Amino acid sequence: MSASQSAVRSRAEAVQVSRTFDWMILFTLFTAVLGGYHIHYMLTGGDWDFWTDWKDRRLWVTVAPIVSITFPAAVQACLWWRYRLPVGATISVVALMIGEWINRYLNFWGWTYFPVNICFPSNLIPGAIVLDVILMLGNSMTLTAVVGGLAYGLLFYPGNWPVIAPLHVPVEYNGMMMTLADLQGYHYVRTGTPEYIRMVEKGTLRTFGKDVAPVSAFFSGFVSIIIYFLWHFFGRWFAKTDFISDDAS
Amino acid sequence: MAATTESVKADAAEAPLLNQRNLWAGIALYLAFYSFIRWYEGVYGWSAGLDSFAPEFETYWMNMLYIEIVVEVILFAGINGYIWKTRDRKVMSITPREELRRHFTHWTWLVCYGWAIYWGASYFTEQDGTWHQTIVRDTDFTPSHIIEFYLSYPIYIITGTASFMYAKTRLPTYQEGLHLMYLIAVIGPFMILPNVGLNEWGHTFWFMEELFVAPLHYGFVFFGWAALAVMGVVNTEVMAITKLLKKDLA
Amino acid sequence: MKIKDRVLKLSFIALLISMTAAMFYAPTASAHGEKSQAAFMRMRTIHWFDLHWSKEEVAVNDTMTLHGKFLVFAGWPETVDKPEVSFLNIGIPGPVFIRAGSWIGGQLVPRSVSLELGETYEFKVLLKARRPGDWHVHSMMNVQGGGPIIGPGKWVTVTGSMADFVNPVTTLTGQTIDLESYALDNVYFWHAVWFAIAFAWLLFWIKRPLFVPRHIAVSTGKANTLISAGDKKVGLAFALGTVVIVAASMGSTNDKYPVTTPLQAGLLRGMKTFQMPEQTVSVKVEDATYRVPGRAMNMTLTITNNGDSAVRLGEFETAGVRFLDPAVHEDDTNYPDDLLAEEGLTVSDNSPLAPGESRTVEVTASDAAWEVYRLADLIYDPDSRFAGLLFFWDAKGTRQMVTVDAPLIPTFI
To answer: Distance between CA atoms of B84 and C352, rounded to whole angstroms?
Structure first.
């Protein structure tokens, strides 16, 4: 048996082996990114993502894109520069949202009985697709960060509005006006989350007119650009294949 | 490469490159075990897990905690000890085909590691958010923590170290030294467990209310990032597998 | 081999089915979850009294109330932030009831409120039963910087089936909806649409050989061959399609829901307080000891009656536990047994204290509740100080409330 001997018996087997590895690698990448991304996202923007009465037009819009552009940027840095695969952002976001949906359905609803219409996740897909396509067309980190990052922030609120708008219909309740989302938060008792914990818009100056969401989205897009750069380099670093000496002596 | 009669015979006799049964059994093992856990918490979370001062809490939850910790220590030592004890001392002289086979086995471990990370970091961690809405948190060892911190995290840690140990003891690729990203991919998520110490300490004098985005939790976030180091492992693996397949794939 | 594969496949499906089934198994038993707080916190923050649970058994969709009063204790402990931002919560295991309403001094309090030290407030929580089971229903106040302050709890049984639960609400635009399932189809629809688009994009790429061949191409300088002109067109279509769908769906949503408002938030201040009858009795705590083996607290009190009718001490209340002298006062509110020591209060001389008279008496409050509710742990707290409410009655049945707040010395023999 010489070292020059082939590992496979035929080209067909080589192709098959390569394809089998594709699936195993994809599975591991998907689940590991899902785990890391999910724990990151739930602890930096989770409460806004968990409950409809946190999904406001100021802080949710600002926080969610900023903290969620992280892993997409890092995974893109690996998959595009090493394999020319323009799916880094979409695969991360899909993984995250699948993880969230499984949890919201089986646990928030299935274990503790919060209706799904109060605890569904935010939609991050539109921004992710645009991020991937810009990277593919431009083949440039800077372009993706600036144009893609901004688009990622800007697309977030309109991408979610069709889902949350029905819950922002006002209702009069015992002499007070509130939205249906507020009412959900009030009705479906969260023993561990008193109302004051909620971080939502509590009134702002109206420098740019009465529309808070576009200003927030724009600011969020702006910060997303910076975060994209930062996490692109994180991604590159995490994609390294270096060895360190294991010789302690 | 013309196949000789001998090599055809050898083909028929040798083990397959990828032992599919092990792969699927691995995935099914975690799925079955965690389904049981999900059933257990669904039933005993409600019937015995709401009041940590009740005797049934001791029976169904504290005992589970004691048992799982003991079993985990044994599994950790046993699995890693076994992999180390049965290490290949002539790892640099294996045939390319054997190396390829070991890469497949290694990936079976990595698939299980990814799967275990999913259950620990995603499924059982976010679940914690909803359980702590439901109970008044009167102990560090809530049913959700007993499962999340002291069961699902140790399980992925054991899986991760085992897969690292496998690579280190059986694959020529990892004989150069310590693969930095592999270390991070295993040690980072591992550090989440010690970080539980900070979490519980903080919760002893901080509010018992559930705010997921509280700065107290950022330690978990930092170590969660380490999951990205799996990309470094993927790249190293792809390079190694490419070396084995390149001339046949061209 | 074929059969084996099939068996494997079927077992896998069976596993998935049983997993799903397991997750929806809903047992009907429960417990509570208080007692965790340091005793001095429970004794010196919010004193709940005059509590009344309107029902002990309630069917799904029916309502019950928990109402009563609470005193925001003047001797508030340093470790808990002052109740400047507080939320009247309800101590139940999640949404087993929905909170149909909650009021402080007649004002609806869906948001946080500001409370004043030393004041008494009247409150009411209206609950609508949702999930069958035996639930411990506690009064509860959350204080920012302090946490949940849990009051007494009583078991309430919810009967019926959660499947029958409805939550109709009429919006200001005139529709009546069921908030339990409202807009759920819409949530599923949009998420399905976006997942489908994302999967199509992923499939477009992962259907081709991925890592090894693409690595070979990139590492040999042929990266450009990996993205064809057709790929770019498809990518552009996905990006433009995404933007168009976002814009169009936003537009159609605005047409469909022309009236929407932002989430409502903001602290409610100036809550109406409840005026307790004027206090004419004054009490001085000479000393107080807790006898560990006897599960009893002894206080030496000097009581002075400055009023115009004779009074007797009938009740000592602390952290929700009520110690009564049955000769003076008996409970008729069906207060939870475990929190009620009907004969737990003994007074060395409890004859009516005449107007203008002053008397020093030995008062003992004893009951297993000291242990069960972990109030005895007070002696191991970093601030060994107790507090509580004393209730006095005159011959006409008029009640007055006096607070006590003093150091506590344990005796271990």
So the answer is: 84
B42 contacts in A (CB within 8 Å)?
110-111
Helix axis angle, A59-68 to A70-83, nearest 10°: 30
- Complex prediction ipTM: 0.95
Distance of CA C28 to the CA centre of its chain: 20
Instruction: Report d(CA A109, CA C28) in Å as an integer.
Output: 16
Please report the residues numbered 120 through 149 in chain B whose beta carbons come closer than 8 angstroms to any beta carbon of chain C: 130, 133-139
Task: List Cβ neighbours of C334 (8 Å cut-off, separation of 6 or more).
Answer: C53, C56
DSSP 8-class letter at A170: E
Nearest-CA residue of chain B relative to A8? B97
Integer Cα distance of B129 and A108 in angstroms: 9
Cα A17 from Cα B239, distance rounded (Å):
14
d(CA B55, CA B62): 10
Compute the distance between CA of residue A202 and CA of residue A59 in angstroms, rounded to an integer.
10
C71: left (phi over 0), alpha (psi -120 to 50) or beta: beta
Q: Which of B226, B136, B125 is nearest to B185 (CA)?
A: B226
Residue C397: CB atoms within 10 Å: 7
Within 8 A by CB and 6+ apart from C366, the residues are C294, C295, C296, C297, C323, C341, C344, C346
What whole-number distance in Å separates Cα of residue C121 and Cα of residue C332?
22
In degrees and rounded to multiples of 5, residue C58 shows phi and psi of -145, 140
Mean pLDDT calculated for residue range C281-298: 89
Q: What is the pLDDT of residues C10-59, one digit of tens each?
A: 666 665 665 555 544 443 333 344 566 677 778 889 999 999 999 999 99
Q: Which of A190, B212, B209, A195 is nearest to C265 (CA)?
A: A195
Task: Tokens for A121, please give them.
Answer: 């996740």
Chain A residues within an 8 Å CB radius of C246: 126, 155, 158-159
Tokens representing residue C248 in the block: 């169009």
**CA distances, C247 to each of A129, A147, B96, B174 (Å):** 15, 18, 55, 51
DSSP assignment string, C263-292? PP---B--PPPB-PPPP-EEEEEEEEEEET
3-state class (DSSP) for residue A79:
helix
Instruction: Answer yes or no: do C93 and A191 touch at CB < 8 A.
Output: yes
Query: What's the count of helices (H) and strands (E) in chain C, helices before strands?
Result: 6, 21
- Do the beta carbons of residue B226 and residue B209 sit within 8 Å? no
Enter the DSSP assignment of A121. P
Confidence of residue C278 (pLDDT cuts 50, 70, 90): confident
Q: How far apart are the C-alpha atoms of C268 and C115, rounded to whole Å?
A: 10
Are B114 and A1 an interchain contact pair (Cβ–Cβ within 8 Å)?
Answer: no
Q: In order of start, what are the domains of chain A with their CATH numbers?
A: 24-238 (1.20.1450.10)
User: What is the interface size between A and B, counted as CB pairs within 8 Å?
Assistant: 265
Least confident range of C2-6, C171-175, C253-257? C2-6
Q: Which residue has the tokens 């996740």?
A: A121
Q: Min CA distance, A92 vs chain B (Å)? A: 11
In angstroms, the CA B223 to CA B216 distance is: 13
**pLDDT at residue C41, rounded to an integer:** 77
Q: Determine, for residues A188 and C211 on separate chains, whether the beta-carbon distance falls below 8 Å.
A: no
Q: Which of residues 164-203 of A touch B (CB under 8 A)?
A: 190-194, 197, 199
Tell me if chain B has a CB within 8 Å of the CB of A85. no
Domains, chain C, with CATH or none: 39-168 (2.60.120.570), 184-256 (1.10.287.710), 281-411 (2.60.40.1580)
Which chains share 3+ C-beta pairs under 8 angstroms with C? A, B
Report all structural domains of chain B as residue ranges with CATH numbers, in order of start.
96-250 (1.20.1050.50)
Contact C218 A201 (CB under 8 A): no
**The pLDDT value given to residue B124:** 95
